[in-house]
Design goal:
By secondary structure, this protein is α/β, with parallel strands linked by helices. It is 26% helix and 17% strand.
């Protein structure tokens, strides 16, 4: 009888709608976590989630830059189809976010940290289905004053910290810690309804700020890498506190967790020292950095953790992407996918838990003049820009390399152009890419 009762309890737990926690990092290097081999950094709490979860070794962002990547996460659609082709575009009211969809099935929803998808009354998080918002609207803020300093001379710097639709002032408080505290508070809140919590750290995006207590953990590193490590450590501590809150409140076993990056590390001088290109974030062995459609720009670290539901200690090499989160979450929560628009993301739950193949025939990207597509082992980049901080690296490749074909299973660094050796593959991918571009531009 005891065994039968235990089995019934387990079935009852699994029948409950799961909580969903999505943790997003900003400008995180493709290899810059402990479980990925970054021995000079310390991310023990993320590493623990990795050991107990499934590591997605071919997870792609849907864009190599912040706002479009976030639009794909929110809508399950390619950024250009969702109307967010670049960092200057808000998420329009016509789009249906994952929060809006989950609220229809009784979920409580919250977003903490960086929004970057609009600051007007009709585009802020509370207008896109989120019951609760704590954070900022723009692409970045100072971690202590919470001001946006990067629009001058076109517009004066301004304060940007909000709780729901109300501006709040917490001058002097380190924002990464505050985001973590807000997350713990949300998790601890007593409720009957399941919840969706999107925690969008602005770490490790510039400006490069961290309290001394974190910087002192990395005394052996050179200054840029040291500050980067400190910022990452603060976010990792916050994640540890979030998981501990889940455990204390009895919610851990019913909470699905995604941890991922929005795009690769940056070389922007704003993140560097002495007006030089930033060097702290590392994307090796991949080619390119933030803004690039080579893999260094959007082949992001990602893990999925759910005790007893997602296999632990597993490496999954199937191609998946950030837009897949929404359809997968809809499947697990019983929410209905929108049928009045094209959804680019796919339900990848069978990929994660049953070993099935990727549901994507191919994945494709556009960013400025760049276009790219991956199908199986083949990756084609048109007008690729590596964005490595050098003058030439900020320009599109020309000549033969303007059409760059790689076998990314054998050549993860996209170092050798195989277009002439494989003309049929090149033609096939160019044709697919052209059709895809025309399709996603209709919205």
């Amino acid at each position: 009888m005891g065994g039968a009762l235990a089995a019934t309890q387990v079935l009852g737990q699994r029948a409950r709608k799961p909580n969903v926690l999505v943790i997003l990092f900003d400008d995180l290097g493709v290899q810059d976590l402990g479980y990925l081999g970054a021995s000079d950094l310390k991310t023990p709490n993320i590493d623990k989630l990795a050991v107990g979860g499934t590591l997605c070794r071919n997870w792609y962002s849907n864009a190599p830059v912040c706002a479009p990547a976030r639009a794909a996460l929110m809508t399950g659609r390619c950024p250009i189809r969702a109307g967010v082709a670049n960092n200057g575009s808000p998420l329009q009211p016509r789009e249906r976010s994952v929060a809006t969809i989950l609220k229809e099935t009784g979920y409580e929803t919250a977003v903490l940290g960086k929004w970057h998808l609009g600051s007007t009354a009709e585009t802020v998080p509370n207008a896109h289905g989120f019951d609760y918002f704590y954070g900022f609207h723009e692409g970045c803020v100072d971690f202590y004053s919470h001001r946006y300093y990067w629009g001058e001379p076109a517009r004066a710097n301004f304060h940007d910290l909000w709780r729901n639709r109300d501006e709040i002032f917490e001058d002097g408080q380190y924002l990464t810690e505050r985001i973590g505290e807000e997350a713990v508070s949300f998790i601890n809140r007593k409720r009957q309804a399941p919840w969706f919590l999107y925690t969008a750290f602005n770490a490790v995006h510039y400006p490069m700020h961290a309290p001394r207590k974190y910087v002192e953990r990395f005394s052996g590193l050179e200054p840029e890498r040291r500050m980067y490590a400190a910022m990452l450590a603060a976010a990792d501590d916050a994640i540890g506190n979030m998981v501990a809150a889940l455990e204390r409140s009895g919610q851990r076993d019913n909470t699905l967790i995604f941890v991922l990056g929005d795009n690769g590390a940056t070389t922007e001088r704003r993140a560097g020292l002495n007006q030089q290109a930033a060097t702290a974030g590392r994307n090796r062995p991949f080619r390119g950095y933030k803004f690039s459609t080579f893999d260094g720009g959007m082949h992001v670290p990602a893990l999925v953790n759910w005790p007893g539901r997602v296999p632990g200690g597993k490496h999954n090499s199937e191609i998946v992407m950030t837009a897949d989160i929404l359809p997968t979450v809809c499947r697990l929560t019983g929410a209905a996918l929108p049928t009045d628009r094209t959804m680019d993301g796919r339900d990848v739950w069978p990929v994660l838990t049953e070993g099935q193949a990727s549901p994507h025939e191919f994945v494709a990207w556009t960013s400025g003049p760049q276009l790219a597509i991956r199908k199986g082992k083949w990756k084609l980049v048109l007008n690729g820009i590596v964005h490595d901080g050098t003058p030439d690296g900020e320009k599109p490749l020309t000549g033969e390399d303007a059409v760059f074909l790689s076998d990314v299973e054998r050549d993860v660094g996209e170092t050798r152009n195989l277009r002439r050796e494989n003309p049929e593959v090149t033609d096939e991918l160019q044709t697919l890419l052209g059709k895809w571009r025309k399709d996603v531009e209709v919205f």
